[in-house]
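Same chain as my last thread, 180 residues:
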Amino acid sequence: MTMPTAFQYLDAENIHYQMLHHPRTESLAETAVLAQIPLNQLARVEVVELVGFASSNDFTRVMMVIPADCEVFPKALAKELGCKQVNLLSDAVLEHMFSDCEVGAEPPFGHLYGMNVLFARELFERFEIVFKGGNHETLVRMNTLDFCNQVRTQLIEHGYGTVDVDIPFTEQASKPWRWL
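reply #2:
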């Protein structure tokens, strides 16, 4: 069985959306700049494995939809969800799971892949959600409530967050410092 693309799925369900095309990008930050969207308003998908969830030793895979300027904090997420451990999945595993998408461009329709979807409260509080549409050249913009009603998300407030990035000072080779 072939998986419908994000656009095929939305069309089949008669859900209004807007497709945004942009030059190919390799990072969410680059995508946000080219699409002229603040990074914290772009949604990113992370797939995690919950170990020992619901009083068992089995694992469950779930999809997280968080702001693009955030990352998953596995220990905090495990505490939030009441499981023993949370593992991020490797690109090789994601490539196998989402054979219909480019790695890093998975749309947030976890229910199409048999996964529950954890949705960041900050994204829920926005009128629209913008996310990658299965490749690194297309974004999807749609109403957040339409998305949540269709996907049946579970809101989360912890287990992810922004990370401060220290940018080291580097001198330009063409203008070296000179002491006077």
